[in-house]
Structures are given as structure tokens and as C-alpha cells.
């Protein structure tokens, strides 16, 4: 019997990978973000479709799979983040990832609290997750919408930075939920404790990887492959090492290691980056299809009109307000500022981390909150679904209407 179950699971995993690759091919062919097809594939094979995947399919191991997958995705995004580009880039970029992120966080928390009505803990957790736009949905948009370089850089940098900061903020808030009668300075201590540990471990792993890549003599034929495997191992080891001390520090460590290595002179950098992108696409496809497959429409419908109102406020009120405040004096035209306002789809990081938290909230151990878990998953996935379909799916049409597409000379 166990052999039969294992074979079924292997077949299912293979099918998910095949669907993920198919989604990437369709995205390239029709020039729309792959996340649109990944969500569709997940819903098709999930409980609301063919029923091939249920919450029991992967059991308790799903939490570990999602955690490691998120670490790889965050590592790759951080690896591509250029410190010099952030330092010398448009002021609007720095505002969007600081003031803009703070306003988005506070505005989203207040909106969710007032319209849906969960506890402040759940509201803040949802808000932290929804700060992130993410390169996994922004990059495909810019591939089919050729806008001015400054506009593209602003959107890309915002997505990469906010992916990491949103993950860090969310995991710290989640840990704070387990503390009883925690004073304000206690939250600061928890944040700094996990942040510092994650940063230190990330720096240590980055130093080890760099030493192995630059100081150890390797056969010329094996060097590129070794470089690729070492960086992948670095992402997983950084996450695992920090996670073994504080479960919420793993993502910080992966992000730090990726950012540090990405801004160092490394041999075979191009092949490392290409390999990491390929692995991330595969992991992203697997995780997104699996998470979408576990989504039940009842969780979305349970939010009712309040859920749709939250999405509407985030898309047409909060996002434009944040962008227009952040881009004052940034050298953008009014049409470009409006385009940036209308392109803020959420992607894999909110979905992955929300599922990870929901799994833990549905257990009997603190901070157990099954009702909060349903609101968390429902709200996050509803925002992802609507923003991906509308903002990512129609990004080219929006850009064309606003006249911000750059024509080739």
C-alpha cells in the first residue's frame, strides 16, 4: 500500500512540475505574467477542480517545503538587487521602499481591520504580507510593457526590496503573536533579535561561499557547475541554520546571503544568476500551483463584499495615494505616475508565507487561531487573484491607454 501511495505522490509532483513548465511556456508565448497560468493550474487540480490535491496530500511536510522554497526565491531576488542602483537611483525608489511601504502597511492594516474585522494581530499580519508587489509578477509585466528605464527600475527595485522587507516584517509579527502581554519594547527586541541573527548568519554563509568560490582551486571544467551548486547550497544552508535557532530568522538569513553575494565580485556570476533564476522558476511554479490548489473558494466567499471592498481600497485608493506621495519631484510624468499606481500586483511571497502562517495557526499550539487563519488566507489570496488578473493581465492595455509605452526607434 505504501508503495502505491508513494507512486501516486511522485506522479502528482511530476504533474505539478509539468504544469509549471507549461505555464512558463504559455506566459512566454502570450506575453502575460506566468502567475496567471500558475493560479489557473492550481485551481484546476485543487479541491475546487479535479480534486487531485487536498490539504492532506503533503501533510505536515508542506510547511517545510514552503519555507525552503520561499528562502530560495528570496535569495534569488536579493542576489539581483544592486546596492549601487538603490543608492544612486531615483529618490522615488527609496521613498517607495521606506515611506511608501510604511504607509501601505498601516493603511492596509486599518482597512482590513475596519472592513473585515479580524483581530489587530491578524490585520497587521495581512498588511505586512501585502506590502510586497514582488519581482515574480513585476518582471514579466515589464517584459511585455516597454516603459521608460526609470519607470522600470523603480517598479523592479520596489518589488525586490519589498519582497524581502515584507517577509521579515511578517515573520517577526507572527513571532510576536506567540508572546503573552508583550510590551512595545518587547516587539522591538524580538524584531532586532531575529533580524540580527539572520543578518549575521547570512553574512557568515556568504563569506564561506565567497571563500570557496575564490580561494579554492577547482578544475576549470567543474568550476561553473560548482559555483552554481555552492550558491544554491548557500541559500538553503543560510535558511536552515537561522531557522534552527529562530524559525522566523531563516528568511532574513537567506535574503542577507543573497544580497551580499550579489554585490561581491564572484567568478561565473552570469551562470550563477541564470541557474538561480531557473531553479527559482521551477520552485515558484511548484509552490504557486500547490498553494493555489489548496485554496478553497469558501474562504474567499466567506469574506463577502467586505473582502472585495478591501481589494478595491488597496487598488484604487491606497496604492495610488502611496505612489503619488512617493514620486513627488521624482521626474515622472503624470501618466507614468498613474501607470505605477495601477501596477501593484501581489505574487508568490504573500501566498507562500500566508500559507505557512495559516498552517501554524490551525494547530493546537499557540498562537492557535483557526478563524484568523481562514481570514488571513482568504484576504491574501483574494488580493493576489484580483490584482494579478486585473493589473498584471491588463498591464499592456493600461500602459497603451496611458501612452507610456516606449516605441523602438
Automatic annotation (TrEMBL):
Protein location: Cell membrane
The record's keywords, sorted A to Z, are: Antiport, Cell membrane, Ion transport, Membrane, Transmembrane, Transmembrane helix, Transport
A Pfam family that this protein carries is Na_H_Exchanger
Q: Does the keyword Hydrolase apply?
A: no
Task: Output the Gene Ontology cellular-component terms.
Answer: plasma membrane
Where primarily located? membrane
Set out the biological process GO terms recorded for this chain's protein: monoatomic ion transport
| Cited PANTHER family | NA(+)/H(+) ANTIPORTER 1 (PTHR32507), NA(+)_H(+) ANTIPORTER 2-RELATED (PTHR32507:SF0)
Q: What is the name of this protein?
A: Cation:proton antiporter
Naturally occurring in which organism (per UniProt): Halohasta litorea
